[in-house]
C-alpha cells in the first residue's frame, strides 16, 4: 500500500532517483513511482535511463524493476526514470471505472460482494461480483447506464489511509479478502472514495433512468473501497466506458467485462451500426426495434436462424 508511491501520486510519470541494487536485468531503486503488479492491476511500463522496463514486481513492499536487457547501471548511480503515461492513464481510468461499476451494482444487486479485478491488457477489464441476484439484460443495461451517469456527473475521486480496525468497522467501506494484499500495510488501509454528486454541484435527490431504476441520493458517496491501485481524480477522466457483457461462473458469482477508451468507442460504434441497420431493415425507430423484431419473428420463426453475415 504505502510502498506503492504510484498509488499515492498517480500523475507522477518522470522522476530522478538512485540505484540501490542491480542483479542481471533486475533493478532496485531508492525511490520508485512505477506501479508493481498486484491486486489484478498490471505493472507500469516505461524506462529507467535508456533501458525499457518490461515488468515491475511488488515484493515485500518494494518494487523490483525487470528490464528488457541487462543495464550498464551501478549501485549509487543517479538515473532519470519515465513511465509510459498512456498505459498508466489507461489503468487509472479502467480501475476507477471498476469502482464506479461496483457502486452501481450495490444499488441493484442483493448480497453483493467484490470478487476481484483482472486487466486484459488494454482491451478490457473483468470485474468479478458475488451476488444472489440474477442479472438479466435489463439489469445489465441499468448497470451500464448508471456507470456512464457517474462519469457524466464528474464526481471527485480521493484516497486516504485509515486504520485496519476502522476499515473493518465501517459499513460503507468495501473491504474483502480480494483487496487485503494490495490495500493494507502496517495496520493501515488505503481507502478510495468516489464522492457524491453534490460535491460538484450536480444537486441531490433522485433521477429516473430509462430502465425504470433511479439513482440514489446525490449527497452520498458513490463508492468507498479499500484499494491499492491507481485512480483518476474525477470520474469524468474515465472517458468512454461501456459494459461488454456478463459471464455467470460458479454459483453466486458473475463476471462483467468493461471496456474503457478506444475499445469502448469501437464497441459503441459497432452497436450504433447494428442499431442503424436494424432501423433501416425493419423501417422502425430505435425504440421500436425490439417489438418490430418480435413481430418479424412471429411471422417467420425460422428467419433469425437463417441470418448470415454475407
TrEMBL record:
<protein>
    <submittedName>
        <fullName>Alanyl-tRNA editing protein</fullName>
    </submittedName>
</protein>
<dbReference type="GO" id="GO:0002161">
    <property type="term" value="F:aminoacyl-tRNA deacylase activity"/>
</dbReference>
<dbReference type="InterPro" id="IPR012947">
    <property type="entry name" value="tRNA_SAD"/>
</dbReference>
<dbReference type="GO" id="GO:0004813">
    <property type="term" value="F:alanine-tRNA ligase activity"/>
</dbReference>
<dbReference type="Pfam" id="PF07973">
    <property type="entry name" value="tRNA_SAD"/>
</dbReference>
<dbReference type="GO" id="GO:0005524">
    <property type="term" value="F:ATP binding"/>
</dbReference>
<dbReference type="InterPro" id="IPR018165">
    <property type="entry name" value="Ala-tRNA-synth_IIc_core"/>
</dbReference>
<dbReference type="GO" id="GO:0003676">
    <property type="term" value="F:nucleic acid binding"/>
</dbReference>
<dbReference type="InterPro" id="IPR018163">
    <property type="entry name" value="Thr/Ala-tRNA-synth_IIc_edit"/>
</dbReference>
<feature type="domain" description="Alanyl-transfer RNA synthetases family profile">
    <location>
        <begin position="27"/>
        <end position="270"/>
    </location>
</feature>
<dbReference type="GO" id="GO:0006419">
    <property type="term" value="P:alanyl-tRNA aminoacylation"/>
</dbReference>
<dbReference type="InterPro" id="IPR009000">
    <property type="entry name" value="Transl_B-barrel_sf"/>
</dbReference>
<feature type="region of interest" description="Disordered">
    <location>
        <begin position="287"/>
        <end position="310"/>
    </location>
</feature>
<dbReference type="InterPro" id="IPR050058">
    <property type="entry name" value="Ala-tRNA_ligase"/>
</dbReference>
Amino acid at each position: 500500500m504505502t510502498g506503492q508511491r504510484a498509488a499515492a501520486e498517480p500523475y507522477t510519470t518522470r522522476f530522478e532517483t538512485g540505484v540501490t541494487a542491480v542483479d542481471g536485468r533486475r533493478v532496485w531503486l531508492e525511490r520508485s513511482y512505477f506501479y508493481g503488479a498486484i491486486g489484478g492491476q498490471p505493472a507500469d511500463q516505461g524506462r529507467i535511463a535508456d533501458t525499457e522496463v518490461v515488468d515491475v514486481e511488488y515484493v515485500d513492499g518494494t518494487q523490483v524493476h525487470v528490464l528488457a536487457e541487462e543495464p550498464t547501471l551501478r549501485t549509487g548511480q543517479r538515473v532519470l526514470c519515465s513511465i509510459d503515461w498512456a498505459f498508466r492513464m489507461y489503468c487509472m481510468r479502467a480501475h476507477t471505472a471498476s469502482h464506479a461499476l461496483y457502486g452501481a451494482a450495490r444499488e441493484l444487486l442483493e448480497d453483493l460482494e467484490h470478487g476481484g479485478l483482472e486487466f486484459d491488457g488494454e482491451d478490457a477489464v473483468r470485474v468479478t461480483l458475488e451476488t444472489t441476484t440474477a442479472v438479466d439484460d435489463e439489469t445489465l443495461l441499468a448497470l451500464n447506464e448508471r456507470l456512464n451517469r457517474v462519469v457524466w456527473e464528474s464526481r471527485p475521486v480521493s484516497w486516504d489511509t485509515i486504520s485496519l480496525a476502522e476499515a473493518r468497522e465501517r459499513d460503507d467501506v468495501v473491504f474483502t479478502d480480494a483487496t487485503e494484499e494490495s490495500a493494507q500495510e502496517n495496520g493501515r488501509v488505503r481507502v478510495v472514495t468516489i464522492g457524491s454528486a453534490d460535491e460538484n454541484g450536480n444537486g441531490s435527490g433522485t433521477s429516473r433512468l430509462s430502465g425504470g431504476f433511479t439513482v440514489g441520493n446525490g449527497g452520498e458517496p458513490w463508492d468507498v473501497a479499500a484499494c491499492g491501485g491507481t485512480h483518476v481524480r474525477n470520474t469524468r477522466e474515465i472517458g468512454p466506458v461501456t459494459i461488454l457483457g456478463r459471464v455467470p461462473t460458479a454459483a453466486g458469482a458473475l463476471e462483467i467485462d468493461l471496456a474503457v477508451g478506444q475499445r469502448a468507442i469501437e464497441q459503441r460504434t459497432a452497436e450504433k451500426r447494428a442499431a442503424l441497420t436494424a432501423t433501416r431493415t425493419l423501417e422502425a425507430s430505435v425504440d421500436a426495434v425490439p417489438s418490430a423484431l418480435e413481430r418479424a419473428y412471429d411471422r417467420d420463426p425460422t428467419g433469425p436462424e437463417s441470418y448470415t453475415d454475407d
